[in-house]
Amino acid sequence: MTSRFTVDAVVLDIEGTTSATGFVVDVLYPYSRSRFAALLAERADDPAVARAITQVRELTGDQDADAARIEKTLNAWLDEDRKATPLKTLQGIIWSEGFARGDLVSHFYDDVVPALRAWHTAGVRLYVYSSGSVAAQRAWFTSSPEGDLLPLVSGLYDTENAGPKQEPESYRRIAEATGVEPSRLLFLSDRPGELDAAVAAGWHAVGVRRPGEPYFEQGVGDHAEAAAFDEIGITSSRSST
């Protein structure tokens, strides 16, 4: 059953929504794990790396943590799948370089790219809001199997520039940044807590529920549900006025 919305913009989660969680866990996580040590040893003075190191020390309360202890913390967070901003920042740096070198090519479900292109053509703005860093998101959309998809996207948001994904204030912040009224925004995610937060901020929301994904059995609560993007009908509110 198709859910239909008239909106100005769609905001996309990535993992479990546009793309398989298994790809992230089985391909990207090991790729970053194998490169944390070199990044910390060779580029600790890079501004983004230095900021992440400081954030790790602040979050752990270990102000004297050296590179080895920081790497151990990053790997522990990786094992927990913790959405820690410094972990996501450092992963984003590593993944961006891996995509640029051609070591990595991102994954999208087959129904996603045709829908994104159709919505974009219809005048609906597309944004991304993921726990992965903006750098990682940019690399992900640039290095898809179907080429560079970044021109379809109007903006990228993560836990650093928007805030935690299960807090309504983060969605209010995105609405303000995009200049789109909350009632004209639609959020697509597989995680019920994120959908709840978006709705609490006045957005529309659809739970994308794909077999095999971690949150499939949990369901999407009382939110509209879709198994694929072609079950979501979207019209630009600008074309309907």
Question: What is the number of strand segments?
Answer: 8
Largest sheet: 6 strands, parallel
From N to C, what is the helix and strand string? EEHHHHHHEHEHEHEEE
Detail the poorly predicted runs: none
Structural class: alpha/beta
**Which percent range describes the beta-strand content?**
5-15%
Cα gyration radius (Å): 18 Å
Distance between the termini: 26 Å
Helix content, binned percent = 40-55%
Spatial strand order of the main sheet: 4-3-2-5-6-7
Mean pLDDT over the residues: 95
> Helix count?
9
* Global morphology: globular
Element layout with pairings:
Elements: E1 3-7, E2 9-12, H1 21-33, H2 36-42, H3 47-60, H4 67-80, H5 85-101, H6 112-121, E3 125-129, H7 134-142, E4 155-157, H8 168-178, E5 185-189, H9 192-200, E6 204-208, E7 224-226, E8 232-236
Parallel strand pairs: 1-8, 2-3, 2-5, 3-4, 5-6, 6-7
Helix pairs in contact: 1-5, 2-4, 3-5, 5-7, 8-9
Notes on the protein architecture:
By secondary structure, the chain is of the alpha/beta class. The protein has helices at residues 21-33, 36-42, 47-60, 67-80, 85-101, 112-121, 134-142, 168-178, 192-200, and strands spanning 3-7, 9-12, 125-129, 155-157, 185-189, 204-208, 224-226, 232-236. The chain has a six-stranded parallel beta sheet, sandwiched between helices. Strands 1-8 form a two-stranded parallel sheet. Strand 3 (125-129), helix 7 and strand 4 form a beta-alpha-beta unit. The two termini are 26 Å apart.
